[in-house]
Design a protein that fits this description.
By secondary structure, the chain is α+β, with helices and mostly antiparallel strands. Among the domains are: 146 residues, Resolvase, N-terminal catalytic domain (Rossmann fold, 3-Layer(aba) Sandwich), CATH 3.40.50; 109 residues, Hect, E3 ligase catalytic domain fold (Alpha-Beta Complex), CATH 3.90.1750; 95 residues. 44% of the residues lie in helices and 14% in strands.
Amino acid sequence: MYVRQSTLQQVNDHQESTARQYALAGRAAEFGWPPERVQVIDDDLGKSGQSAEGRPGFQRLLAEIALDRVGLVLGLEVSRLARSCKDWHQPPEVCARFRVLLADADRLYDPTDYNDRLLLGLEGTMSEAELHVLRERLHEAKLNKARRGELLGRPPAGYVRLPTGEWAIDPDEQARATVMLVFDQFDRQPSAHALLRYLARHGVRMPVRPHCGATRGHLEWRRPNRTALLNLLRHPAHAGAYRYGHRQVDPRRKRAGRPHSGRRRNPLSECLAVLRDRVPAYIPWDRFEANQARLTANRSGPDTPGAPRPGAALLGGLIRCGRCGRRMQVHYGGAKSRPWYGCTRGITTYGEPVCQSLSAGCLDALVAEQVLAAVEPAALEASLAAVAGVERERGALARQWELRAERARYEADRQYHACEPENRLVARELERRWEQALADRRRLDDGNDRWQRAAPVRPTAADERAIRSLAADLPAVWHAPTTTPADRQRIARLLLEWVVVTVDRASERVAVEVHWLGGLVRSHVIARPVTRYECQADYPRLVERLGALCGEGLRAAAATARLNAEGVPHAAADEAAHGPDRDAVDGEGRAGPAVPVREHGRAGPGRVPADGPGPPARGVA
């Protein structure tokens, strides 16, 4: 006798159906089987019949039939055995081979008889169709409720579920302050991983209300992790929006033995229902969209720049090749590990040679100059906003410590008052909890004292004047040791979309197209470092002039002085490796100032050739 119900909820609430199935033992007695020969298989209670996977009772039934130990199989109806034609046709086939009868509440079936086999097949088909109708009916009802924004599931961090089923902002003040701290700091940090490091560095815990277990609904404080932060930043409920259908099951990705596998996350545009202004919000909708754009841009892909890196290169992830259109990679090499950009995707993908490459110094100098010129009008407002931002950050962290200390005091007081005379039988355990609460309170007080000593002090009037004075000298702030490469990269990404470069292999000139956010495109020409003087565009003119000076009988020193006086750009290649400011060429093509050549010896170290780092070149004698 096979007994099954689809869900545990049906087992608990619909016990009459279970009783009817167990009562089939009386029908077996009517057919002549004694009670001790009736075996009940109820291992599949609470499991769906849409698949044979994960149903040990069904597998056990087939094994007993195949061992020729069964004469009659009883079930309330054929849908108890299977809801799929694939699984349903197997029991009649096995029963027919071993001459086993099938019976339900209506009649007795002989699988060896053609008419009974035909009837069993039709009933199995109708059982599968019934499951499809029931599933579609329930799905459409859920979808109709979701379109109204009323199908609310588990609330995200920072929300609680009311008895009416609606979501409300968490009444706990510390939980609300922690959620706002996460959003405020994500605006300051370059990536979600940097935000995680910030929270761990300051000992901030995340509020969690478990949805199951003994502590269901109670507020707990756990260590922040990457998954929890991403779920909080991506959930549109914090911006007041309701969504449904963001996680759907792909049957092709399901794995045997893992019932929760095959789920995929849909973007907000592909959800079945998205309704704005349906729940209380922490942040406005435009700020939520900006956060999603940042999370998408931080992914390293063909069309996204990726998160800012700690390297010295300014344009990592933003530079594209003007020849093939691929994104160029950042490389570090040479004695001083100077960065250079190279289009090396063809090497790893197709085994092709390097498309083009150039030193990062000259290109970064040009882009930095353009970026500083663009942000100069807003420098004063940015400095004042920075002062206010530091003050807000300090206040938020101080508030976190105050709330944590207040919660520790409440917990210590609660444990103290619990240890009353009427609780003398459990006083020892209550005293131990009280001592633990006092130890936690002392630890929080010590941590708060350490933070107060290490936290930046409030800026004074003199500090504010110093910050305003720095706003007039943005290059000094840009090149300051306290300004990290990640800070420079983030500023560049706020203004630039792409930088397209095309290297002229026959000369030192590089065509640069700066694509600004908003659609503006500016073209520039710069001079890159080269390894040999003959790689310069003005090399024929230099050779011709040197020949004329030698024909006049001038020695090296006199010839050098004459070239300097005439302004012949004879040393651009030699001085290119010493700094990007000396080899830059402005948009009109005017070369930088000429520098005297060396009469003897090698040129400066650290050459970066057109196709990557290489040996230094000799000077001109």
